[in-house]
């Protein structure tokens, strides 16, 4: 009885679930241009995930896996469909999820095994992978119903069909650790071995514990969180692949409009988050993004954005790196520490870049100004 | 789907939602609340009290009402200037005492006595005014203290002169007339009160002093900065209040000739209740004499009826106090929330369905296929200009364009590098056209149609048109004159983009999808303007065809171009020339080969086209989503099309990515080049048209070669 009444009241007041407000980027998330001006490591088309075994850096780009050495990529593997997630273990074991519903684990000697079933369903829509020691693989499944390519519709419908699995590589037994998640898109182990999941559609990071509901540890993010990686020096690096936007939050709550938009409008032109800056007039425009004097303002409302957040051990944001509405390095899915460097893959910006953690947000990269503390 | 869409279409066609916002935006809407309360009071007491509306009851009330009304006109002035006058109760008693003493007992001539008593009241008001206006003391405390002091004087006076007064009797007919006389059945006091109310209303709304009072109440600091003598204005309002109270007390004295201790007791609360209930804001600046009159009627009816219902006087005061509390609460909430309700209710989307979006992809074979022809056009005035909506040339090849700062800027031939401010108009000049005498005619956003002579002298031609019969917003004033063209006989046809939004909100009009704009004809022979084509969807560019009997006009949100015959055998006929553009057409101008150029200031996007078919969605969006986040037509890419009189698309010029010309609002061909303007741009573009007649000018095309 209370539920429907609360919904009606929320609908009238614009509160609770009906709220279309988005949290402001302030405090540690205050906008800067550090991601936009970060050093280019390699121009790679649509880089999605980064992985490292401690010696080499791998990046997934479409159906290919490239090893990046000094900014030059060499193809190490190629699959028949797009790679949706990548992980490497310290001993050189490598796991890659392929959009054609399977998971390939490659041993250092080149032998590979294919996993096509996850529990009682196909290995569908794997969005993140991480090794838990050498013998087990943690798997984030964005949705058990939909392919990874259908993310936009899943997001607009605010579905929660995602799950996190633990796969024992020796026995090939998969155990479902959590279900009913809103498109888990990042996985990381904290210092105590607990599992952290970036639940993208709910704009939060949750901690999983056996026998208990997922516990939010960082909520109300101003964007959609993607992959999460621990920093060897402590803390985590979180990439957010798109910003939250009042208009999109509003459209998500308009079922009649959504249904017609899905049916009548090409997916590329939806009023939905996007990985790339708008390139065609067929995409929707918001009032504040109107160009004045030939210029798009960096603070304009936008459907794409580049954002990396540094979190401390308690998952509190401490610093952030931005590419704003007028920038190009949007749609960052992964930020990975590798050999003392911080690398980020901007899928919408076709670039792998290196973040300078010592950069001063007001003055740009520290190297450029020489203002090293 | 189709059935529900048909229903939506029907519903938005016949239910005029826009009226809600338009009524709310009227300043008289504040009067609605006391009006409703009055109706409720009348209904309640006529059911409760038999004979409530009978002649004798109303006659009694009317006499008292006259006195109340005189006082409340004075109070209205005080409150409008942001003050409060609690002294009225004591002033009333004091003047009553003075009237009885001077006129009743000492039989002073009324012509001398009445002004004298008013002056006594005025003197008390002046003390208030000096203390509050010039010494800057708090109005509430000062008048409260004065209330007590004057009351003490009255009590002393009653002790001293009580005997004298009760013995006195003035038998003059004039004095009797003031007390009980009527004019055609209306009590004398009410006749005088009506005259005072009328004068008060005229002063407050039409005269300098009234405007000063309202300005001081609305914003004291701004009024001071504007040069208004704030202290004097405040002081004068208290004096007016005192004078009025004195007059009312004279009528009271004539009517009752009683000098009891309870005369005027609680009058200040009654008057305050009446004023606030009528909708005169305690904060100042909002209200009118009419509202005060309404408030006084309500309070008087309630007071009178409560006594007739047999309530004790304590209960009566209690009810009055509760009404005052409720009125103050309503006043505070209403003033605070009115603009919020208005902001939510004003934008009123309606159903509009555009034909399927034409293909624009490069290599698609569509006449609109994308290209990069405008990439790298030369720029004129880059960085110096702000908003050259239209561009035009005189016979000496000098270039003229408008700017957001309200200027017309002239770039000198031949290279258009050097510029000067040709004329300052004050509003953003939009459309430009030269008449045969070399005068520059321009539509100025927010101002109307103006003429600038070759020497730079600015003359207003028109800022109003005929008011239409059923429009709630005042559509006689021109809000957003947009583009114009001149017929061979000198008549000027110009478009007004929308009558519902101001200059800088014009894009919000896109969310409505209704025909809010119109085309107006200014006739120089009569100096009058008349609306010739109403209800157009943001009419924008206008171009008189070379035949001189018809014109082409673009409807921006309608994505179509229409021909309208204003003369000749087909006079009055309207025919659509292009019905489904891929973008939003802006200005139309002649091309050298007898065809036409049209700028598309923005492009259609499928999501916005869909939203146009779902007015409920847009209304909720306006209410829930912040203004900068609203879905708009895509105005960051524009193009130029060329079409012939039959509507065939001959050419299209794109600036892909919108780097130099994101939004093209105008084009002007001149001597083989095409000049591009943009209302939000910082330059004028210059594009070489391959194969165009290098001698052709628009001036010659319209008015022939210079002879």
From TrEMBL, chain A:
InterPro entries per the UniProt record, alphabetical: 6-blade_b-propeller_TolB-like, NHL_repeat
NHL repeat intervals: 170-211
Signal peptide: none
UniProt GO MF annotations: hydrolase activity
UniProt KW Transcription regulation keyword: no
Record bears the keyword Metal-binding: no
Keywords: Repeat
UniProt protein name: Strictosidine synthase conserved region domain-containing protein
UniProt organism field: Prosthecodimorpha hirschii
Classification lineage: Bacteria, Pseudomonadati, Pseudomonadota, Alphaproteobacteria, Hyphomicrobiales
UniProtKB/TrEMBL annotation, chain B:
Domain Strictosidine synthase conserved region intervals: 482-566
Membrane topology: Multi-pass membrane protein
Stretches of the chain forming a coiled coil according to its record: none
A GO CC term attached to the entry: plasma membrane
Keyword Transmembrane: yes
Compartments, as annotated in UniProt: Cell membrane
InterPro entries cross-referenced by the UniProt entry: 6-blade_b-propeller_TolB-like, ABC_transp_permease, Strictosidine_synth_cons-reg
This protein's record includes keyword Hydrolase: no
Ranges that cross the membrane: 28-47, 68-90, 110-132, 139-159, 179-204, 235-254, 266-285, 317-335
Any GO MF annotation of the entry: transmembrane transporter activity
UniProtKB keywords: Cell membrane, Membrane, Transmembrane, Transmembrane helix
Domain of life: Bacteria
Stated name of the protein: ABC transporter permease
Species whose genome carries this gene: Prosthecodimorpha hirschii
């Amino acid at each position: 009885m209370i539920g429907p009444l609360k919904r009606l009241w929320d609908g009238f007041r614009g509160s609770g679930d009906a709220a279309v407000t988005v949290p402001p980027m302030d405090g540690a998330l205050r906008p800067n241009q550090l991601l936009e001006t970060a050093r280019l490591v390699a121009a790679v088309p649509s880089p999605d995930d980064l992985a490292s075994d401690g010696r080499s850096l791998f990046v997934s780009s479409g159906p290919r896996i490239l090893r990046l050495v000094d900014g030059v990529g060499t193809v190490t593997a190629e699959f028949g469909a797009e790679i949706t997630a990548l992980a490497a273990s310290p001993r050189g074991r490598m796991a890659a999820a392929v959009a054609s519903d399977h998971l390939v684990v490659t041993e250092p000697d080149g032998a590979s095994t294919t996993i096509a079933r996850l529990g009682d369903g196909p290995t569908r829509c794997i969005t993140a992978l991480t090794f838990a020691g050498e013998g087990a693989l943690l798997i984030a499944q964005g949705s058990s119903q939909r392919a990874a390519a259908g993310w936009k519709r899943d997001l607009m419908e605010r579905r929660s069909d995602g799950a996190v699995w633990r796969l024992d590589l020796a026995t090939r037994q998969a155990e479902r650790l959590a279900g009913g998640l809103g498109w888990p898109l990042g996985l990381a182990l904290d210092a105590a071995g607990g599992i952290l999941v970036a639940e993208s559609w709910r704009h939060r990071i949750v901690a999983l514990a056996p026998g208990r509901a997922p516990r939010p540890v960082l909520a109300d993010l101003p964007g959609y969180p993607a992959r999460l990686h621990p920093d060897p020096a402590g803390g985590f690096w979180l990439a957010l692949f798109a910003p939250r936007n009042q208009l999109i939050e509003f459209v998500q709550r308009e079922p009649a409009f959504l249904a017609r938009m899905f049916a009548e409008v090409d997916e590329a032109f939806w009023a939905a988050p996007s990985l790339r800056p708008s390139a065609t007039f067929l995409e929707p425009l918001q009032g504040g993004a109107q160009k004045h004097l030939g210029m798009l303002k960096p603070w304009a409302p936008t459907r794409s954005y580049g954002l990396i957040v540094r979190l401390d051990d308690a998952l509190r944001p401490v610093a952030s790196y931005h590419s704003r509405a007028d920038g190009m390095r949007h749609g960052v899915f992964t930020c990975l520490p590798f050999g003392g460097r911080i690398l980020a893959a901007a899928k919408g910006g076709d670039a792998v870049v290196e973040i300078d953690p010592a950069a001063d947000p007001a003055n740009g990269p520290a190297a450029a100004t020489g203002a090293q503390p | 789907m189709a059935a529900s869409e048909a229903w939506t279409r029907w519903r938005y066609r016949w239910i005029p939602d826009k009226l809600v916002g338009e009524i709310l935006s009227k300043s008289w809407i504040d009067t609605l609340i006391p009006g409703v309360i009055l109706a409720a009071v009348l209904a309640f007491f006529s059911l409760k009290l038999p004979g409530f509306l009978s002649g004798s009851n109303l006659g009694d009330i009317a006499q008292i009402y006259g006195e109340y009304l005189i006082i409340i006109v004075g109070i209205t002035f005080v409150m409008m200037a942001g003050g409060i006058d609690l002294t009225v109760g004591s002033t009333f008693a004091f003047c009553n005492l003075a009237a009885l003493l001077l006129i009743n007992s000492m039989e002073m001539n009324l012509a001398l006595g009445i002004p004298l008593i008013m002056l006594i009241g005025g003197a008390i008001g002046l003390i208030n005014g000096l203390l509050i206006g010039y010494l800057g003391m708090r109005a509430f405390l000062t008048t409260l203290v004065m209330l007590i002091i004057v009351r003490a004087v009255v009590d002393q006076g009653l002790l001293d002169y009580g005997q004298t007064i009760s013995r006195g009797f003035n038998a003059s007919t004039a004095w009797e007339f003031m007390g009980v006389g009527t004019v055609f059945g209306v009590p004398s006091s009410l006749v005088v009160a009506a005259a005072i109310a009328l004068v008060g209303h005229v002063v407050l709304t039409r005269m300098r002093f009234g405007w000063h009072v309202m300005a001081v109440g609305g914003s004291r600091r701004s009024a001071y900065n504007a040069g208004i003598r704030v202290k004097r204005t405040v002081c004068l309002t208290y004096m007016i209040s005192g004078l009025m109270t004195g007059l009312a007390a004279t009528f009271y004295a004539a009517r009752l000739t009683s000098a009891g201790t309870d005369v005027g007791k609680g009058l200040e609360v009654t008057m305050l209740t009446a004023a606030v209930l009528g909708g005169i804001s305690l904060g100042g600046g909002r209200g009118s004499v009419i509202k005060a009159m309404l408030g006084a009627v309500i309070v008087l009816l309630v007071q009178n009826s409560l006594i007739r219902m047999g309530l004790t006087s304590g209960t009566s005061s209690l009810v009055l106090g509760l009404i005052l509390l409720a009125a103050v609460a309503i006043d505070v909430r209403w003033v605070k929330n009115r603009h919020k309700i208005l902001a939510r209710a004003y934008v009123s989307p309606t159903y509009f369905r555009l034909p399927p979006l034409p293909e624009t992809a490069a290599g698609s074979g569509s006449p609109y296929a994308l290209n990069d022809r405008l990439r790298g056009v030369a720029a004129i005035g880059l960085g110096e200009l702000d908003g050259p909506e239209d561009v035009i040339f005189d016979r000496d090849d000098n270039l003229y364009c408008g700017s957001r700062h309200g200027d017309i800027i002239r770039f000198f031939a031949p290279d258009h590098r050097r510029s000067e401010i040709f004329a300052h108009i004050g509003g953003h000049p939009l459309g430009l056209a030269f008449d045969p005498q070399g005068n520059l005619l321009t539509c100025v956003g927010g101002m109307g149609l103006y003429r600038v002579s070759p020497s730079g002298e600015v003359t207003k031609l028109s800022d109003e048109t005929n008011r239409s019969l059923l429009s709630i917003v005042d559509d006689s004033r021109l809000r957003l004159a947009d583009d114009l063209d001149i017929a061979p006989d000198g008549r000027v046809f110009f478009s007004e983009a929308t009558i519902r939004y101001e200059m800088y909100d014009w894009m919000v009009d896109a969310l409505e999808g209704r025909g809010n704009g119109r085309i107006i004809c200014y006739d120089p022979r009569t100096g009058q303007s008349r609306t010739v084509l109403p209800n157009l969807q943001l009419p924008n560019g206008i171009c008189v065809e070379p035949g001189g009997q018809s014109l082409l006009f673009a409807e921006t949100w309608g994505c179509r171009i229409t021909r309208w015959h204003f003369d000749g055998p087909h006079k009055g006929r309207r025919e659509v020339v292009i019905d489904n553009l891929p973008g939003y057409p802006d200005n139309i101008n002649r091309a050298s080969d007898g065809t036409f150029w049209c700028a598309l200031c923005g492009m259609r996007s499928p999501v916005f086209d869909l939203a146009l078919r779902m007015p409920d969605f847009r209304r909720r969006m306006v209410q829930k989503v912040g203004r900068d986040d609203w879905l708009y037509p895509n105005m960051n890419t524009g193009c130029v099309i060329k079409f012939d009189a039959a509507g065939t698309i001959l050419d299209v010029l794109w600036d892909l990515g919108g780097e130099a010309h994101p939004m093209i609002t105008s084009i002007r061909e001149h001597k083989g080049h095409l000049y591009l303007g943009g209302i939000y741009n910082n330059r004028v573009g210059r594009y070489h048209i391959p194969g165009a007649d290098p001698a052709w000018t628009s001036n010659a095309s319209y008015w022939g070669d210079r002879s």
